[in-house]
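The records we work with from here on pair a chain with its fold. These numbers are not coordinates but entries in a learned vocabulary of local backbone shapes. To see the layout at work, look at the sequence and tokens printed below:
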Amino acid sequence: MLEFSLLYPLNTLTRTAMRLDGMWKFQIDWDEKGDEEKWLDGIPGDETIPVPASFQDFYTDKRVREFTGDIWYESAVFIPSGMKGSDVFLRFGAATHRAWVYLNGEKVGEHEGGFLPFLVDITKASRYGEKNKLVVKVNNELTETNIPCGRTITLSDGRKMTKPYFDFYNYSGL
């Protein structure tokens, strides 16, 4: 079934599509402590942001707009009990540039390649007939081997900064 799973999500006789667009919890990992503090189980704070979107488009603060590193998203996903016994996937339109996906605290997938759709099999990690906690960590650092390419430098104050090899903004997010 996986070979057909990147089909554009539409409802058919054999497929049920649910959109997860909307307001998601959002947290910038300023101090690179999200992994250590296990944000995969739920991110701190109560800030929200629309998904899909580039997070930088919603801020005027230069420090936020130029943030380089990990950003975290969280949403609740209700998975109907009628889906039990079926293959269940999450399809992301893109995550710029790397993503790690967790459902109910369990890592269910990862992806590298901004601007490309990807999917994650959540069949085994799902709790059917109830809400599930979906957490996605996105990293927007550039390297010379990813597309688009560039590099990430660390400034004297410890902040990271992207140095793109392209002539447009390093849009980032889900």
Q: What stands out?
A: The chain has one domain: 2-9+21-164.
